[in-house]
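Exercise 4. Each item below gives a protein and its sequence. For each, produce the structure-token representation.

Item: Probable GTP-binding protein EngB (Roseateles albus).
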Amino acid sequence: MTNTTPVSQHSAQIETTPTEKVALGWTHTARFLTTASELVHLQANELPEIAFVGRSNAGKSTAINTLAQQKRLAFASKTPGRTQHINLFELGPKDAADAWFADLPGYGYAAVARSAKLRWQKVMADYLEVRRSLSGVVLMVDSRLGMTDLDKQLLEFVTPRVSTGEIKLLVLLTKSDKLNRKDADAALFGTRAFLAENASAESDITVMLFSALKKQGVGKAAQILHAWVHPVPKTAAAEIADGAGQADGAA
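Answer:
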């Protein structure tokens, strides 16, 4: 069984390979661009757009901040589920941005009024189904809970585009430091098995363990996102996928 004793935020360092270091340097450039409460208010974008989605309390804002190595880039409300805007961040050189991150509202929090839940379900469904610049989705799933019904419902909106290869999918099993080795392996196997049911030969889907607290999977996740925007040769892409598998196995 692995040690699941919490550690100080300052005691955990991101161990990186040279390629991961480059990717983390890129994610570190993320900066706030704009916010919108309706899809029609989002400006058109010709750059690759990567959306971050997940249940409230799944660690979405923390994951974004950890990937960007910034404490308050993505706002984490003290009342989960209250943040009801799509927040956009741009990445790359300030005078030549090369990608956007889109932070979508968390979903599934019980204290939010049903009308607000339905409204945001419609906004996110439309965004995932029709946003032309969307090229990748990062789904945060609490590793202790696995894929919930709400996570599966959200995936239904984007599955057609993932199946054709139009959109890439990265599933981060967050808070993996809370699991022992057996449970972590079970979380990986169960999530991969579920996603395989609707995958095709064109699908680009990665599932990996992630811990913002212990910095597990941070460098590898950044490397995957960087490769989405800056395509690498097939041999290098295979090394990235292999590295993600090795990181999972070491959890």
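Check: The chain has a mean pLDDT of 85.
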